[in-house]
Specification:
By secondary structure, the chain is mainly β. It is about 0% helix and about 40% strand.
């Protein structure tokens, strides 16, 4: 399940500077809409994985911010 984010808050950062040492909330573009994934992800080299399962996910995120359990999905 994904959620539409109508405007990205200032704390979103470009994926080009995403760290690989922590859980991240990421945004992807689907068609003309921006969506924030509802589960934490981690950068693994050039790829992305589900932070909980460590399984690769086929995404090309555009923005990220530190995962915050209280904010997830909002």
């Amino acid at each position: 399940m994904i959620m539409v984010v109508h405007s990205l808050p200032d704390k979103w950062l470009p994926v080009s500077i995403a760290p690989s040492d922590g859980d991240l909330e990421v945004c992807v573009i689907n068609g003309r809409e921006i969506h924030a994934l509802i589960f934490p992800c981690r950068k693994s080299g050039p790829d992305w994985v589900d932070a909980a399962t460590k399984k690769p996910i086929a995404i090309q995120p555009t923005h990220w911010r530190i995962w915050n359990e209280n904010r997830a999905g909002t």
